[in-house]
Amino acid sequence: MKAEPRMKEEDLPTVSQFLDVLNGAQSEEEVQQFLTTNHVVVSGGWERCTIIPKLRLGSDFVTDFVATAGASGTVYATLIELEPPNQPVFTKDRKPARRLADALRQVSEWRHWIRENERYFIECLKKEAAGKGLPGYPGGPSEYWESYHRRKYSYVIIIGRRENMSERDLQSRAALLDQMSDVEIVSYDRLVDRLRDLWDSKSQRPGTTRTIHGSLF
Asked: Could you give phi then psi for residue 127, rounded to 5 degrees?
């Protein structure tokens, strides 16, 4: 079997490059462009993970990213919605701020769409990811979507910065997520941490990748 290509150190953006983008970004589109070029920041270096930017859900919706991975008989698809890094997450009265409320509504629409169009969704994923080889699956996601018998969908909203979230905001997020088992709301600092971890792992064990054992986030 042909060896799986390993991520090279020069393929990794630096943490300072990513922070420069986050600190200067006025919209999520600027971050989207950086992450599309440097999608390893989204995947976190997980083995058997494919990142698909701007996946269309029929003619109705467009995701920012979809991450797919397979492990232990389950194939995972995580739909990711980006919001601006400079936006508040909650209002002073502990309700979702406008951009978070819009993202939650978007996730609800995606969930309903997939429920009604699951087979078509899977075919879209297979088509977009065709030819991207994975360890043990030379045919890429097309092959492992057929090999795994259990499918799990989840949703991630990335918004704001950790330094701008108060203790009340963290409590509000926890209360909100208690109502939605398939949704995560994280700040962009989750991705910054992920990139730092990648650089740490490269310095300790150059050329290694990690294997996913559950949800990507």
From this structure: -65, -45
The count of domains in the chain is: 1
Structural domain boundaries, residue 151: 9-211
**Residue range 143-156, pLDDT digits in tens:** 656 666 788 999 99
The CATH number linked to 42 is 3.40.91
> CA gyration radius for the chain?
17
- For 99-134, what is each residue's pLDDT tens digit? 999 999 999 999 999 999 998 998 888 777 665 544
Of 58, 56, 54, 49, give the one whose Cα is nearest residue 141.
49
